[in-house]
Amino acid sequence: MDRRKFVIKSAQAAALLAVLPNIACSNKLVSANGIYTEFGIQLWTLRDIINANPQETIRQVGKMGYTQIESFEGEKGIFWGMKPKEFKSFLDGENLKLVSAHCNWTKDLQQKAADVASIGGKYLICPWLGPQKTLDDYKKYADEFNKAGEICNKEGVKFAYHNHDYSFKEMDGVIPQQLFMDRTNADLVDFEMDMYWVVTAGVDPVEYMAKYKNRFKLCHIKDRNKDSKEPFDSCTLGDGFINYPEILVKAKEYGMEYFIYEQEKYNDKGVLANAKESAEYLKKLQR
Question: Are the CB atoms for 154 and 114 separated by under 8 Å?
C-alpha cells in the first residue's frame, strides 16, 4: 500500500472510530418493535447469482419474508428480461411489490419512469455519481436531478439519489450531500440514505434525517463488521456494530418509508444464507 492510500485509509478509520460511540450496536431489539411491517431487498445483493435464473432467485428471497423489491438495471434490464406487466404478474404471484429501481438515469429516463409507474413502482434512483472534482460539478448534478425529477414526476414516479460516503466528505467548506439537499426541489427529488455509507463517512445518519426531515424516503440497511477499518466491509444484519434498532426508530419518525436490505460482502455461508439471516433480523423489528 502506498503512502497516499495509507493516509486515506487511516483517515477513514479515524472517522469511523470517532462516530462509533453514537451508533455502536446495543442489541436492543425490543426498542425497535413496531417500526414497520414490510421490508425489501435490493437485488444488487444477489448480483452474483441472479442472472442465471432471475425468477427462481427472486422467488427464494420472497420465501424468506421480504415483501418488497428494489431492482437495478443489469444486463437483463430493470425487469429481468420480462415485460413490465409480466414482471408485475410474477411478483404478485410471490407476494412481492416493486418499490424502486436503480438505473442509468441519463438514458431513456422517461420510458423507464413510465414502465416503473405502470406496475406501481414509486421511485427511479441514481445509484452512483462518484467523487467530483469541484463543487460546481456537484451543483451541475443537483440541477440535473431537478430535471430528472420533472421527467419522473410527469410519469407518476419520484426521482431519488442514493449516496455513498464521498458525498458526505467536505469540499471547500461544503458538504456535497447538503448541497444536493438544499439545491434540489423537494417536490421533485427525494433521497435514499445508504446508512452504511453515511457511517463509513464518519457521520451519524440520525442527524441528517433530523435536519432534512421527510427528504430521506428510502434507506439501505446494511451492517458493518465490528472493528472494521475497510470501506467495503458489510456483513449480515446484526453481526456488525451499527445500531439499527435505535436508528430505524428515528428514521420512521423523520419520514422514512421504505426499508431495504443490501449486502455487498458475504461470509462463507453465501449470499442466500446471509439474506435469510438478515430477513430474520428484520422480522424481529416488526410488530
Answer: no
Q: Which helix (H) or strand (E) holds 265?
A: none
Residues in the chain, pLDDT under 70? 1-36, 286-287
- Measured CA to CA, the distance from residue 32 to residue 220 in angstroms comes to 17
Burial of 134 (0-12, 13-18, 19+ CB in 10 A): exposed
Task: Give one DSSP letter per residue of 62-107, joined into a string.
Answer: HHHT--EEEEE-BTTBTTTTS-HHHHHHHHHHTT-EEEEEE--TTS
258 - beta bridge partners? Answer: 218
CA distances, 260 to each of 38, 151, 210, 220, 276 (Å)? 9, 25, 20, 5, 14
Single pTM value for the model: 0.90
DSSP state letters, 102-132: E--TTSSHHHHHHHHHHTT--EEEE------
In terms of Cβ atoms closer than 10 Å to its own Cβ (0-12, 13-18, 19+), residue 198 is: buried
pLDDT digits (tens, 9 = 90+) for 116-142: 999 999 999 999 999 999 999 999 999
| Amino acid sitting at position 278 | S
Which grid cell sits at 210? 433530523
**Block residue for cell numbers 427529488:** 189
pLDDT in tens, 78-104: 999 999 999 999 999 999 999 999 999
The answer to whether 208 touches 198, Cβ cutoff 8 Å, is yes
Beta carbons within 8 Å of 170's beta carbon, 6+ residues apart:
none
* Alpha carbons 78 and 84: distance in angstroms, whole number: 9
